[in-house]
Design a protein that fits this description.
Distance between the termini: 75 Å
Helix content: over 70%
Structural class: mainly alpha
Order of helices and strands: EHHEHHHEHHHHH
Strand content: under 5%
Length: 310
């Protein structure tokens, strides 16, 4: 390290290299999608909170998933929108590290919540007689708290390895938010160990839980096929298919970003994948649960009829 090098106090987020007109158009489109994300997840939270028929373990975890989706989007999308209006907008070092920590926390938490939700569906379908006793409210709250705490600790471990690194320039982050691998590229030190740890963590946090989800749904599929009632089988498939759609969206994009093979310009590919991950996933999740779930649709209908003037 040279004596003339100074520590970086802020970063410049480069965002997307587009023409000013295209950036304004994207600002309008992404603002609309962001509003739909907040509205959709807010409606899910409101319905589950105020409808007693949805006060079950499955919808308790859906509430947490909706909360994560709102926080996930709010952590990255506003910064991206500001960047579209003002390219290369600076962000302080502390703000950048905070954004990285929150992104990792919410990503880890969603990963763990999806595993918990698959276990809940496994107990409900494969062990229906013992479901109420096993999935008590005490167990549900413990699982939710464990998920949030574990996610924060995993993100904190990544930050402990990131923060001691020296950053002395350049300060231009080739991303629309402070993504950990994009930040590592700016460190004035050898970051191979950090990159290996991020890769190993991605394999453990993504492939491990995904394997647990696949095993759970393997047992669920076998149990559903044994159901004699056609209506019961359709209801079980409807509930599980919503969860599987969310699992596919989340794990599919995350594995391609951090575990899959790289082709062409991996940094540019990851930017657009993370755009989908940060903006479209949180918006699609409530649509999947509301459109493919009869109980949520029925709760929305009851709420609208109640609010309708006589």
């Amino acid at each position: 390290m040279g004596e003339n090098q100074t520590s970086v106090t802020e970063f410049l987020l480069l965002g997307f290299p587009l023409s000013p007109r295209m950036q304004v158009l994207l600002f309008g489109l992404f603002s609309l999608l962001f509003a739909f994300t907040l509205l959709g997840n807010g409606v899910i939270l409101g319905l589950i909170s105020f409808d007693p028929q949805l006060h079950t373990p499955m919808y308790f975890f859906i509430c947490h998933l909706a909360t994560v989706d709102i926080a996930y989007a709010c952590n990255t999308v506003p910064q991206m929108l500001a960047n579209l209006l003002r390219p290369a907008r600076p962000i302080s070092f502390a703000g950048c590290m905070t954004q990285t920590f929150l992104f990792l926390t919410f990503a880890h938490n969603e990963c763990l919540l999806l595993v918990v939700m698959s276990c809940d569906r496994y107990m409900a379908i494969c062990h229906p007689l013992r479901y109420s006793a096993i999935m008590s409210w005490r167990v549900c709250i413990t699982l939710a708290v464990t998920s949030w705490t574990s996610a924060a600790l995993l993100a904190l471990e990544d930050m402990v390895l990131l923060l001691p690194l020296p950053f002395c320039g350049p300060q231009k982050v080739n991303h629309f938010f402070c993504e950990i691998l994009a930040i590592l590229k700016l460190a004035c030190a050898d970051t191979h160990l950090n990159e290996i740890i991020v890769l190993v963590r991605a394999v453990l946090v993504l492939v491990g839980p995904l394997s647990a989800v696949v095993v759970s749904y393997g047992h669920i599929l076998r149990a559903v096929l044994k159901i004699q009632s056609g209506e019961g089988r359709r209801k079980a498939f409807s509930t599980c298919s919503s969860h599987l759609c969310v699992v596919g969206l989340f794990y599919g994009t995350a594995i391609v970003m951090y575990v899959g093979p790289q082709h062409g310009d991996p940094q540019e590919q990851k930017k657009y994948l993370l755009l989908f991950h940060s903006l479209f996933n949180p918006m699609l999740n409530p649509l999947i649960y509301s459109l493919r779930n009869r109980e949520v649709s029925a709760a929305l209908k009851r709420r609208l009829e109640k609010e309708r003037p006589s």
